[in-house]
Write a structure and sequence with these properties.
There is one protein chain. By secondary structure, this protein is α+β, with helices and mostly antiparallel strands. The protein has 2 domains: 171 residues, Jelly Rolls, CATH 2.60.120; 91 residues, Homeodomain-like (Arc Repressor Mutant, subunit A, Orthogonal Bundle), CATH 1.10.10.60. Helix content is 52%, strand content 20%. The chain contains 12 helices and 8 strands. Strands 1, 2, 3, 4, 5, 6, 7 and 8 form an 8-stranded mixed sheet that branches. A hairpin with a 4-residue loop joins strand 4 and strand 5. Helix 3 packs across helix 6. The longest helix is centred in the middle third of the chain and has 21 residues. It is globular and about 60 Å long. The protein starts with a strand and ends with a helix.
C-alpha cells in the first residue's frame, strides 16, 4: 500500500514552502509519497531505502532527491538518522544565475532521479566526512532562520538553501565513482545545451561534445527523458520563446531568431507540437 502525504501534512501553513524535517532515529516506514520535493541527507547509521520495485542500501553521507509522487520507504534501519529538506521549487522560484552551468546540478537534480533504477542507486551523491559536516552546518542555518522567525526569515532561509543547492552541485561534480562520472558526462552536455541552445546546434555537435556516438547519445537521452537530444534542444528553445512571448513585444520572427530557429514557420510548427497552440495564441491567451 502506498500512503500519500499531501503538502499540508508536513508543509503546514499557506506560506510554508521550505522545511527541515529531522528523523532521529528514522524507524522503518512503509511506502509513501508526497506532493513536494524531498532532499534526503543520511547523517548517521545505515538501512535500506526502497521503492515499489527496488531496494538500496544507504549509509551516512548519502544524499538523494525524491521527486513528488515517487513512493518510497525505509527498512532494516540500524541507528539510522536523516534530514529531509522539504520544498516546493515552483513557489521558491530561485534565480538560477550560473547554477545551471554546473554539470553537478543536472547530475543530482535532473539525471540521478531519472536513472536511479538503471544505475541501481550507484550514481547517488556520497559525501565525505568533511562535506557532511559542511552540509549539516548549512542546514542548521536554514533551520535556525525558520525556527527563529526573525525579520526576513523566509528570505534568509531561502538564501541559505540557494547556497546549499550550489554546494550540492559542487559536491556532485567531485564524485569519482564510474556511474557518477558517466552521469556527469551527460550532465555536462545538458549544461552545454543550456548555455548554447540559441546557437545553431546539430546532433553531430552534441555527440562530439558528449564524446559519444550518435546512437549511444540518442539511447541515453531517450532513457532519461523519453525524447531525443534534438527534441531536448527544441524544448529548451520553446521554453525561452514562451518567456519572450510573455514579457516582450518582439515579433514572432524575431523571437524565432533569438531562440535558435532560422525559420519562423518551422518555429511555429515546433511550438504547436510542444505547447499544443501557436505562438500567437500563446501570446494572446497567456497559456
Amino acid at each position: 500500500m502506498n500512503d500519500f502525504y499531501p503538502k499540508s501534512s508536513l508543509l503546514s501553513g499557506a506560506d510554508e514552502i521550505l522545511k527541515i524535517h529531522r528523523m532521529s532515529p528514522q524507524s522503518p516506514a512503509g511506502l509513501h509519497s508526497h506532493e513536494f520535493h524531498e532532499l534526503v541527507l543520511i547523517t548517521r547509521g545505515r538501512g535500506i531505502h526502497f521503492t515499489e520495485e527496488e531496494r538500496y542500501q544507504i549509509r551516512a553521507g548519502d544524499m538523494f532527491l525524491i521527486w513528488p509522487g515517487r513512493p518510497h520507504g525505509y527498512a532494516e534501519t540500524e541507528k539510522l538518522e536523516l534530514i529531509n529538506i522539504l520544498y516546493m521549487p515552483e513557489q521558491l522560484n530561485f534565480p538560477d544565475l550560473d547554477l545551471k552551468s554546473q554539470s553537478g546540478y543536472y547530475a543530482f537534480f535532473e539525471l540521478e532521479p531519472r536513472l536511479r533504477r538503471e544505475h541501481s542507486f550507484k550514481s547517488r551523491l556520497r559525501l565525505s566526512e568533511l562535506e557532511l559536516l559542511e552540509a549539516e552546518n548549512i542546514i542548521w542555518q536554514i533551520e535556525r532562520e525558520l525556527e527563529g522567525k526573525k525579520g526576513a526569515f523566509h528570505y534568509m532561509a531561502a538564501s541559505f538553501f540557494m547556497s546549499f543547492r550550489g554546494m550540492v552541485a559542487r559536491w556532485y561534480s567531485g564524485q569519482k565513482s564510474l556511474h557518477s562520472r558517466k552521469l556527469l558526462e551527460l550532465a555536462s552536455l545538458m549544461s552545454f545545451i543550456n548555455r548554447n541552445f540559441e546557437k545553431p546546434l546539430s546532433i553531430d555537435i552534441l555527440a562530439s561534445k558528449a564524446g559519444m556516438s550518435i546512437s549511444t547519445l540518442s539511447r541515453t537521452f531517450r532513457r532519461a527523458f523519453a525524447y531525443s537530444p534534438m527534441e531536448y534542444v527544441i524544448r529548451k528553445r520553446i521554453a525561452r520563446a514562451c518567456e519572450l512571448l510573455s514579457a516582450s513585444n518582439l515579433t514572432i520572427s524575431e523571437i524565432a531568431s533569438k531562440t535558435g530557429f532560422s525559420d519562423s514557420n518551422f518555429f511555429s510548427r515546433q511550438f504547436r507540437k510542444v505547447k499544443g497552440i501557436s505562438p500567437r495564441e500563446f501570446r494572446k491567451f497567456g497559456a
